[in-house]
Design goal:
157 residues, alpha/beta, Glucose Oxidase, domain 1, ten-stranded mixed beta sheet, two-stranded antiparallel ribbon, 4 helices, globular
């Protein structure tokens, strides 16, 4: 699956998630159903989701665009892999980027920060979120590779 080919044949059903993402991880691409989390500089709910069976879903997280605090590190990325998540799209920053870059996962994030997140339980799961010109709802579909991230209301591949 290539996002370039996907949008060439399904442009009417896809929207580009238009943010200056950096891509991390050894996995070449992902395609999966969306699960949403909204949090700001606190990864409690993000971690809680990744501790559950991913069943090939992609966790899409609105971290408020913060690049001051990382909401994902290598240990939580390991949870995602262990529990069968296909990937992550973060409107936020990560840390442990060199380690994550070697893992069998694909993560899109705005950047990196060495500062770890708060653990106060702030956040909501499963509610509609929006960033990068896209409104995401749990159950939507998302596709990502080296060329970018695409969103659809339905499964295309």
């Amino acid at each position: 699956m290539k996002t370039a080919d996907l949008i060439d044949t399904n442009a009417a059903d896809l929207t580009l998630v238009h943010l200056p993402f950096r891509r991390f991880g050894a996995k070449a691409h992902f395609a999966g159903k969306v699960q949403t989390v909204k949090c700001f500089e606190d990864n409690t709910e993000l971690r809680a989701q990744l501790e559950t069976p991913g069943e090939g879903r992609v966790l899409v997280v609105d971290g408020g665009g913060s690049t001051r605090i990382a909401i994902l590190g290598d240990m939580i990325a390991e949870l995602a892999i262990k529990n069968g998540w296909a990937g992550l799209v973060l409107n936020a920053a990560i840390r442990d980027s060199a380690e994550i870059d070697q893992m069998d996962i694909q993560v899109f994030a705005l950047g990196t920060s060495p500062v770890k997140s708060a653990k106060r339980g702030w956040g909501v799961v499963g509610e509609p979120i929006g960033f990068g010109g896209v409104q995401f709802e749990a159950g939507d579909w998302i596709y990502g590779d080296a060329d970018g991230v695409l969103h659809s209301k339905k499964k295309l591949v």
